Amino acid sequence: MNFLNSKTTLKDNFIVVDESQGALFSFGERLNSSLQATAFRGNLSTEPEKSLYSINKRVNKKTFGKIDKFLPPGSINQDTALVLVNVLYFNATWKKGFDKNLHTESFSLQNSKDRKISTE
Hints:
Antithrombin, Chain I, domain 2, alpha+beta, three-stranded mixed β-sheet
């Protein structure tokens, strides 16, 4: 890696399988050993907004509030059978810092909007 030290690294891996998808739950349990992802059952298809809230709440808690809204509204709907979540929040000092005057590219957000990011 290209960093000196990690000040903060917070991560969480989990899978949420819809209650109606019994066979998928055993797949989710097998991910525990390979991805260290905890498997949960949820009402994704019948209660998508409640499921979205629960997932975002877990991510927020596991990252100590660093990641507030991981999944955007509408990303879970009646057709959702499984949600695999891999969250990583990383803060470190880089060996070679960015020159903010030279780094002018935008970061593309999920909603197709670009945002300038701080390189300090």
